[in-house]
Amino acid sequence: MGDPLPLRLALPELRYPIGSEPEKTISINQHSIVAYIKIVKEILGNDEFNRIRGTFLGPVIKLGERSLKLSAKIVHAVLTKSIKTVKRHEAWFHFGAQPMRFSIREFHMVTGLKCSGEAREPREKTERFKWDFLKGRTHTVKDVEKQLRNTREDASDERFCLAMLLLIESILLQKSLLDGGTTFTLDYVKIAQDMDVLMTYPWGRTAYNLLLKSLQRAVDKSLDKNNYDLQGFPMAFLIWILESVPLLQYAFSQVVPILSVQPSTPIFLCEKYLQIASPQLIDVLLIEIKDHVSFYIIFFLFLFCLMILHLKANYFYGFSLRSYASYLLFLMIQKLMFAWKTKLIKIWMTWPIYPREVISLKLEIGETCQ
Fold first, then answer.
1. Which of 191, 265, 322, 344 has its CA 20 to 30 A from that of 293?
2. What are phi and psi of 273, to 5 degrees?
3. Which positions ≥6 away from 361 have C-beta within 8 Å?
4. How far apart are CA 281 and CA 265, in angstroms?
5. Where does residue 107 fall: left (phi above 0), alpha (psi -120 to 50 degrees), or beta otherwise?
């Protein structure tokens, strides 16, 4: 038998104690530019673009073509519920007293991008394509777009590589839109010149690391500000939230119907979302306590019936249930008054996390990240 579990367990420390989360009106600046999907499609035409649609970018392209907006309030509500952890390569949050993990595994399940494997170096050889922006030390997506527009229409492989690079950098790896946009190193260009390396490179790992660092930076420094930035592909984080909290998904999104037949190819989570609403912060917080409020309503009805029983028992049989019913009713009234004063936002503060969940959460988050 293994070592017994400690008798005293404490929840991991929260970034913001329950009830003290920032609730101000905020906006989030995201720099992912899905508009480049339309631009690339116009440059290449349908036939050449379908070749790109059949690559690992297919699920992301399908999501981008639906023009879904990032719901800043949903993202902000979850970021304020961050759980402190020693693990550097993943983030933990809580919602409705339930812990949630966002790691590279979840990022892959959302986007379908390759997140594991060795990052191969381009083969040492003469540059396959002569691109103008190779003369400098860095480049932007505008440079890649200009080169794509100036490439001959019969150079299909060259146009394919440029288009893939343009979509990867503009959608997954953008950091800023200031001063002409993000500046990228030429390492990505060298990868794009070798088609085999381009198609097997773990772009998902690069995109996830950029997004995770941006989320961690926002949690540490920016949640009490009126606006802040999220780099990389924050739409993947939003979809993970909706998948992790079904009540949020049902309330604020529309998804494709569940398939009754197993598809021949994997369907990633970003492909199923048709619409995503932009609720207010109060709407998101009310969703969090929905089940708990329902419990208290049922409990109130139970106490009401108990009071009726008390009156009947006292009248017909001469004994009293006052010692129990009156006390429970007093507690219920106090709880309802508290819920009214706080606009039903923080009533779930007193809702317990079951010991088994506390144990698993403590052991999972407390492990040192390798």
1. 322
2. -90, 125
3. 11, 12, 99, 353
4. 37
5. alpha
Query: Two tokens at 361?
Result: 């959460």
Residue 94, strand partner residues:
99
One-letter identity of residue 229: D
Strands 227-230 and 27-30: parallel
In the predicted model, residues of the chain with pLDDT beneath 70 are 1-11, 25, 124-127, 177-180, 258-264, 290-370
Q: What SS3 class is residue 6?
A: coil
Q: Scanning the structure block, which residue is given the tokens 């609403």?
A: 277
DSSP secondary structure string for all residues of 100-164: EEE-HHHHHHHH-----S--PPPPSSS-SS--GGGGSSEE-HHHHHHHHHTS-TT-HHHHHHHHH
pLDDT of residue 337: 56
DSSP at 14: B
Q: What letter represents residue 115's amino acid?
A: C
d(CA 214, CA 220): 10
Which residues, including other chains, have CB under 8 Å from residue 90's CB and lie 6 or more apart?
101, 102, 103, 104, 212, 369
The residue ranges of every structural domain in the chain are 27-280, 290-344
CB 222 within 8 Å of CB 249: no
Q: By the 8 A CB rule, do 116 and 205 touch?
A: yes
Would you call 276 helix, strand, or coil by DSSP? Answer: strand
Tell me the helix, strand and coil percentages in the chain, rounded to 5. Answer: 55, 10, 40
Q: What is the 3-state secondary structure (H, E, C) of 256-294?
A: CCCCCCCCCCCCCHHHCEEEECCCCHHHHHHHHCHHHHH
Q: In b/e form, how buried is each residue of 348-370, taking b as 16+ CB within 10 angstroms?
A: beeeeeeeeebeebbeebeeeee
d(C-alpha 227, C-alpha 81), whole Å: 17
